[in-house]
Amino acid sequence: MSQVVYVNEKSGVDSTEVKGTEQQPFATPAYALFTYPDSKIYVFKQSEGEEQQEGYLEISASALKKAKKGAEGIKKKIEKQIKLDEQKKQKAEEASLKLAELDLIKIEEDKSLPIAKKIKLRTMQDNLETRVAVQGWIHRLRVQKGLAFITLRDGTGFIQAVLTGDLAKAKQTQELTIESTVIIKGVISKLPEGKTAPGGVELKADYYEVVGLSPGGDDAFTNKVQENADPSLLLDQRHLTLRGETLSAVMKVRATLLKAIRRFFEEEGLLEVTPPCMVQTQVEGGSTLFKMDYYGEEAYLTQSSQLYLETCLPALGDVYCVQESFRAEKSHTRRHLSEYTHIESELAFIEFDDLLSHLERLITKTVSYVLEDPVAGPLIKQLNPDFKPPQMPFKRMEYIDALEWLNEHGIPNEDGEPFKFGDDIAEAAERKMTDTINQPILLIRFPVEIKSFYMQKCKDDPRVTESVDVLMPNVGEITGGSMRTYDYEELIAAIKREKLDLESYYWFTDQRKYGTCPHGGYGLGTERILAWLCDRFTVRDCSLYPRFTGRCKP
Ligand code: 4AD
């Protein structure tokens, strides 16, 4: 006799655990039949008549037919699931086998190959078709099946390395990350027409080693430095953002600019000196002084090395320095830093006009040297495609004429009124004028009261000074300079007028006492000229680790 199996749609459960007894019924006839194919099915029924009766009744023929179909379906479904589970298991086994296999792929150097010559990437074009070893950081990475592309960076250049065969398959390659350091050995060849990579070459790797593996996952480099992140977050990660193509390009142009400046000074016969940064005299007004305690005495971080350069003239002739200057600027402008690299020079026995033409030569020649440079030239093209080198002579404009220009163009002074003699031309107005005129301007002859105490008054108009600001489109002032008051009494009067402590300037005023001479000089802000040259929005992008209000780290 066939087994009796019970089904109760309300209280039953379809499960392999269930026995199909009266106490433990299934929920559906289909599942009951699937579990016990030849059984007799009894289904719990509740009659709906007046006298409520309930109990198990044998399944009807039509319901049995339906249940048989259902049981078939369940069987198929379960068989399919078993098959899928088996496939999954097999795949996992294969993958772990593969990984174990990859682990077995040992990257070994073929000792029969010629010894690789260690090179820096800047010389890659001179080392084609010989076995080389390049070392650097993984700038970009693409790992495919049996093929991996690494763009390597070593600070002097970029190269694309191609890894094939076991080199590409090895676990070591599968686990590589951006910014890891590696040594890659192989042969550099020119790329065929139509293929592109840095320098038009490619390094076919025959061996490589990992020197330092960078983290992946949450701590990955790309998570720390995200291109569109908040500027202040990026500044916190400056040590990492420096590795980026734009910032490193600006730093390379910066190095070339300083080299070009030194070349120009050498050609003009100026000698480099290194004045102190810790001083006890101010140059450019008390409001921007960084004060410090110097063994119990008050001292400052230098605002400008000008006064020291002046003292060098009798000993060394014309001099220059490339020195950090410090300004406690409270304002957050895009062209002010608290610490900047100040290029200053001082020239003896010159007239105001000599100073102006020296400045024109300085800027045009330096820029042309930078543009000629094989590294910096192309970088400027990349950073500032529309850059046009300035031509001599520069437009010369007197302060008084600038006021007229500003008033004619409806640009008001800081009080919102038309400019009048003696007004400072603040940053915004100066920028508007410079950007509109859109060429370098030598803005000259500023009034005595808005300029520093040491400036020589004009012989033809003692209300104004022999002073100059060099203004460039997009940045504004990049240089400030002047002829210096060289008459002893006049200088003393100016120091007194500014209420400076005369005694602490004894070493400076002595220059007018022991053999004075007409002389002049200027200061050029490295980050300002770079912002102009590289078309950067702010000078902060032109400094290695910019310092400004609220930022002195990292
Ligand atoms: O016009 P400044 O204040 O002139 C002097 O310090 C003179 N003693 C220089 C000299 O004649 N030897 O500054 C000169 C230049 C400015 O034109 C500007 O390029 C730069 O220094 N500069 C700054 N750059 C960045 N951040 C700041 N806070 C700057 N202040 C001045």
TrEMBL record:
InterPro entries: Aa-tRNA-synt_II, aa-tRNA-synth_II, Asn-tRNA-ligase, AsnRS_N, NA-bd_OB_tRNA. The keyword Ligase applies. One of its GO terms (cellular component) is cytoplasm. One of its GO terms (biological process) is asparaginyl-tRNA aminoacylation. Keywords: Aminoacyl-tRNA synthetase, ATP-binding, Cytoplasm, Ligase, Nucleotide-binding, Protein biosynthesis. Residues 251-546 form the Aminoacyl-transfer RNA synthetases class-II family profile domain. GO terms for molecular function: asparagine-tRNA ligase activity; ATP binding; nucleic acid binding. It is found in: Cytoplasm. Its EC number is 6.1.1.22. It is an enzyme of class 6 (ligase). It catalyses: tRNA(Asn) + L-asparagine + ATP = L-asparaginyl-tRNA(Asn) + AMP + diphosphate + H(+). Its main location: cytoplasm. CDD domains: AsnRS_cyto_like_N, AsxRS_core. Belongs to the class-II aminoacyl-tRNA synthetase family. This is asparagine--tRNA ligase. It comes from [Candida] subhashii.
